[in-house]
From TrEMBL:
<keyword id="KW-0808">Transferase</keyword>
<dbReference type="GO" id="GO:0019288">
    <property type="term" value="P:isopentenyl diphosphate biosynthetic process, methylerythritol 4-phosphate pathway"/>
</dbReference>
<dbReference type="Pfam" id="PF01128">
    <property type="entry name" value="IspD"/>
</dbReference>
<protein>
    <recommendedName>
        <fullName>2-C-methyl-D-erythritol 4-phosphate cytidylyltransferase</fullName>
        <ecNumber>2.7.7.60</ecNumber>
    </recommendedName>
</protein>
<comment type="function">
    <text>Catalyzes the formation of 4-diphosphocytidyl-2-C-methyl-D-erythritol from CTP and 2-C-methyl-D-erythritol 4-phosphate (MEP).</text>
</comment>
<feature type="site" description="Positions MEP for the nucleophilic attack">
    <location>
        <position position="209"/>
    </location>
</feature>
<dbReference type="InterPro" id="IPR034683">
    <property type="entry name" value="IspD/TarI"/>
</dbReference>
<dbReference type="InterPro" id="IPR001228">
    <property type="entry name" value="IspD"/>
</dbReference>
<comment type="similarity">
    <text>Belongs to the IspD/TarI cytidylyltransferase family. IspD subfamily.</text>
</comment>
<dbReference type="InterPro" id="IPR029044">
    <property type="entry name" value="Nucleotide-diphossugar_trans"/>
</dbReference>
<keyword id="KW-0414">Isoprene biosynthesis</keyword>
<comment type="pathway">
    <text>Isoprenoid biosynthesis; isopentenyl diphosphate biosynthesis via DXP pathway; isopentenyl diphosphate from 1-deoxy-D-xylulose 5-phosphate: step 2/6.</text>
</comment>
<feature type="site" description="Transition state stabilizer">
    <location>
        <position position="22"/>
    </location>
</feature>
<feature type="site" description="Transition state stabilizer">
    <location>
        <position position="15"/>
    </location>
</feature>
<feature type="site" description="Positions MEP for the nucleophilic attack">
    <location>
        <position position="153"/>
    </location>
</feature>
<dbReference type="GO" id="GO:0050518">
    <property type="term" value="F:2-C-methyl-D-erythritol 4-phosphate cytidylyltransferase activity"/>
</dbReference>
<dbReference type="InterPro" id="IPR050088">
    <property type="entry name" value="IspD/TarI_cytidylyltransf_bact"/>
</dbReference>
Amino acid sequence: MNYAVVIPAAGQGRRMQAAVNKAFLTLQGRPIIAHTLAVFQADPRCERIVLVASENELDEMQALAEEAGATKADRVVAGGSERQDSVRAGAAQVMDAPLLLVHDGARPFVAIERIHALLLEAEQSGAALLAVPATDTIKQVDQEGRVKQTLKRSELWAAQTPQAFRPEVLQQAYAYADETGFQGTDDVSLVEAAGGEVAVVEGDYDNIKLTTPEDMTLAEAILAKRAGEAGT
Ligand SMILES: Nc1ccn([C@@H]2O[C@H](COP(=O)(O)OP(=O)(O)OP(=O)(O)O)[C@@H](O)[C@H]2O)c(=O)n1
Ligand SMILES: C[C@](O)(CO)[C@H](O)COP(=O)(O)O
C-alpha cells in the first residue's frame, strides 16, 4: 500500500543549542531536513510529503525542499507549539491517503526496507512503529533523584519514527485526545491512550534523532560509514 508522510520540522531544537532550527544544520554540506526528505522522495511508495515548519520559516523550508528536489513535498504547513500540534496540522492535509506515516524531520537515516516492513504491519494492525530493544538498563527515578525501580529491560524498546497509521485509526486517536486533553511525546501513544493496539517493527540503531550536539558527530560518522560501504 502507498502512503503519505508528515514530517514535523517546526521545533526549536533547544537541546541542540544551535543558533538556528536544527533542521537547517548541515551534514556533509546538506541540511538535515534535505537528507530526511531525500529518503521519502526516493521511495516509490511515498505519494506525498507534508512538511511542517514554524510559521516564520515556511518560505525558507519551501525553498529548501525545492532546492533539494523534493517534488513530493508540495505543501509546507505551519506547525504548533508542541510536536503533537505540528503533526496534527500536517496530518489534516493527508487524511485521505491509504496509509499515513509520521517521521521526525530530525531523523535523516531511516532505511527504506524498514519503512516497507512498517507499512505491511500498519496495513494489518492499524498502527505500528519502528523501535529498537533498549540496550541500557533503565531506571525510574522520582522527583528527588532517587531510583524508584529498575525496569525489566527485556520488555523495553526505544521508540523511533516513522510511526504508521490507517487514517481512521489516527482520526479516532485525535478524537480521544480532544476529549481528554491527552498529550503524547510520540504519535502512537495517542492510539495506546485511546485503548488501541500498536504493533512494533524492529528498526535500526542508526535511525537516530539528532537531538544534542554530540548527535551531529555521530551523524557524520554514520554518513562516512555509509559512503565507505557504497565505495564513494
Ligand atoms: N512544536 C514542535 C516540536 C517539534 N517538532 C519536530 O519534531 C521533531 C522531533 O522533535 P525534537 O527532536 O524534540 O525537536 P525540537 O522540539 O526541535 O527539539 P528540542 O526539544 O530540543 O527543542 C523535530 O523534527 C522537530 O522539528 C515540531 O515539528 N513541532
Ligand atoms: C517521536 C520520537 O522521536 C520517538 O522517539 C520522540 O518521542 C520525539 O520526542 P521529542 O522530545 O520531541 O524529541
